[in-house]
Amino acid sequence: MTDARVTVGVNGHIQADIEAREIVIDGTVDGNLKARESVRLGASSKVQGSILTPRIGIDDGARLRGKVEMTRGGESKSSKSTGSSASGTTEDAVPAYNTVSASIERE
Amino acid sequence: MNWMAKSRPSGTGAAAAARPGDPAAAATQNLKARTSNGLKEFLWLLSDIQRVRVLDLGPVWQSTVNFFLEKGFRISTEDLLGTWKEFVSAEEERMRTAPVDKDGFAERMSSAALADKFLESALQYPEESVHGVLAWDLLDYFDPAAGSRIMDRLFNILHPGGAVLTLFHSRAPERFHRYRIVDKQTFELVDAPTLAVHTRVFQNREIMELFEKFRSSKTFVGRDQVREALFLK
Asked: Other C-beta atoms within 10 Å of B217: how many?
C-alpha cells in the first residue's frame, strides 16, 4: 500500500479504486477506497463504492452508496470529523489509477 | 429469529436509556431526538448474529456509521430517496428531450416501469446478504408501484431472520427530516430541505399488505403518532 495522501477536490471526478495511506474526498468517486490510516468524506463528496479503513470521518452532506468496513491498524476505531475540509493536495507518490477526470495535485 | 424465545437484557426501556450524563440522556433533551422502541428492538434482534451487515437507506452520517462500526457491524448506506429523485429527474429530462414518434406521441413511462428501471441500478446487493435494513420513513414518499417493488427487493436481499425498521407518519409531516442514530434507543430527526413531497398516509392494513411476505411484525406508536414498524423475514 502506498504512503500517499490522496485528495479528490471538489471538482474532481475519479472512476477507479483508490488505495492510499490517507484519503480525503470532496468530489466524486466511483470506486472503492482503501486507506491504511483514514478516509474522510467532505460535505460535497459523492462516493459510490466500498470503504475499507481503520478510521473514517464523514461531514454532514456527504453522500455514500456503498459499505463501510473497519480494518485494524488505526489508533481508534472511528473518528469524528472536524468539518473543515482539507485542501486538494497529494503527498508523495500518487498510484497509477485509471483516472478519467481527476483533480489530484501534488504538494 | 423468534421474538418470544429470545432473552432480553435487563434495564431496557426509556427510563434506563435516559440516565443523567449519558449520551442518551443528552439526546433525549434535544427536541429533535426521538426515543425509539423500534430501534431498540431492531438492535436486539441483530445482537446474536455474527458479522451483521446493516443497510441504511438514508444519507450517510458520522454518528450512525460510528454507532454500527463500534458494535462490530458492517454498514452499507444508500440514500434511496435521494437517488430516486435524481433518477426521476434524469428520466423526465430524457423523455422531455426525446423525439416524438411518427404518430406524434412523446415517450411516457408508467410509475411501475420507472421503478423497475430504477431498481436495475439501485439496491444492488446479493440475495440474503443483509441482516438489517433501516428504511426510516421513505416508503411514505414513494408511490405504491415503486414502494411495492422496493419492498420486494428488500425482501430478497434480507437474510432469513433479518429485520426491516420503518416509520410511517399518521399525518403529513410538517417538515422533511432525515434520520441518524444517536444511541441504541435514540435517533435524531435532522431538518433537511424537502427532497420529496409526502405521498401518502398508510393505513395499517396497507402496511401489512406491503410487508405481506414477511413472517412477523411489531408496531410501536409514539406520542407524535409516528408508527415504528419492525418486520422480520
From this structure: 16
Across the interface, do B82 and A63 touch by the CB < 8 Å criterion?
yes
User: CATH number of the domain at B20-232, out of 3.20.20.60, 3.40.50.150, 3.40.50.300, 3.20.20.140?
Assistant: 3.40.50.150
Contact, B223 vs B165, CB < 8 A?
Answer: no
ipTM exceeds 0.85, yes or no? no
B74 vs A69, A78, A80: nearest CB: A69
Query: What tens digit of pLDDT does each residue of B198-211 get?
Result: 888 999 899 999 89
Of A65, A78, A81, the CB nearest to B70: A78
The CA distance from B187 to B140, in Å, is: 18
Tens-place pLDDT, residues B129-178: 999 999 999 999 998 899 999 999 999 999 999 999 999 999 888 889 99
Tell me the pLDDT tens digit for each residue of A70-91: 876 543 333 333 333 322 323 3
